[in-house]
Amino acid sequence: MIGAPNLEPQPYWFTNVADLIFPSGFLGHFPVALFFLISGFVIPFSLINHNRTQFLISRFLRLWPTYAVGLTITCLIIIMCAGWFGMAQPFPWSTYFLQLLFIRDLAWVPTIDGIVWTLEIEAKFYVLMFLFAGSLRSGRFWPLIVMAFLLICLTVGASILPGWLSSGNVIYNFLYGLTLSAQMICFMFIGVAFNFFYRGCLSLRFTVLCSAFFYFALAVQWPVGTIKLLYLSGLASYAIAAAAFALAFVWRDKFKHPPRYIDWLANISYPLYVIHAVAGWAFMRMAVDAGLGLGVVLTIGFTFSFAAAITLHHWIERPSQALGKRLSEQLGRSSMPQKHRDTAAAG
Question: What is the pTM of this model?
Fold first, then answer.
């Protein structure tokens, strides 16, 4: 992915300890699962407080500008790394443009940065929430249950087609992308169920039953889907993430005043996610090739990732969020009846 020769595995003490403490693949699965649950919980609030147009504009400006700049930086660093080792550019520019549009998964081509697949799922989740805006506002939960059932049918039905997971046909590639999103969106619906419970639209018992059903929907799709090799480790990690999310929800009053450094990490978390992975590895790989020791290599990786994230946050993420807020407020005022606008202005 970074245009560098492969290295022989060199496990160090902290990787050995991590392998002993955590289930296989846990450190990759768990934070992604938690991210999906948090999105499922918070995104419906955006549709409750805004109209559909406001929602689309605010979500686009929240997600895309930071990602577009971060992906561009990643591509340039990968090209630099490939040049360092005298190797060809390891990705076509067509993939870059597919990733910018969050539709790379529908072409089922390898990712450049390793993280866009989660944002592609997030974008599809936004579309579903946009379509279900009326149900979200009125507290009707049954459409999401029906949708989860339909997503199960999509994945299981696609899996019995001849050549599933072994054909390179364009239609199959499209289905691969859809079915991966389908299983993860079912899991995200757990967060939506907690949102309904928080707003008093679901009872505790029904929330638990719905969450169990959505996890079942994930579990049914996973072994026949595109990442079936991660089935057992994935389900265990996602279950642990769901339990952690539920405990955090129960004890949410304890998180009202987090330490300032937690707020700071939260503020840069999205650009850090966007930039840290492959670009960070490229810098670390060149440092290894230059003969630097592990401590220096790790320092370079952390320094680059956090410096890039802070820069993206201040120069791209915050301005684009502010623009989204201004546009959303303007659209909200223009869609108000005149008497409501007069009242808001007086207030």
Answer: 0.92
Enumerate the domain spans of the chain.
Answer: 26-339
Which residue type sits at 111? T
Residues 6+ apart with CB under 8 A from 28: 237
Structure tokens at 331: 């659209």
Beta carbons within 10 angstroms of residue 224's beta carbon: 18
Look up tokens 């955006």; give the residue: 46
Distance between CA atoms of residues 343 and 186, nearest Å? 41
pLDDT in tens, 169-204: 889 999 999 999 999 999 999 999 999 999 999 999
CB atoms within 10 A of CB 306: 17
Backbone angles phi, psi at 10, to 5 degrees: -130, 75
Cβ atoms of residues 265 and 286 within 8 Å? no
Sequence-distant (6+) residues with CB within 8 A of 107 are 98, 173, 174, 177
Residues in the chain predicted with pLDDT less than 70, given as ranges, are: 333-347
- HSE-up of 158 (CA within 13 Å, CB side)? 26
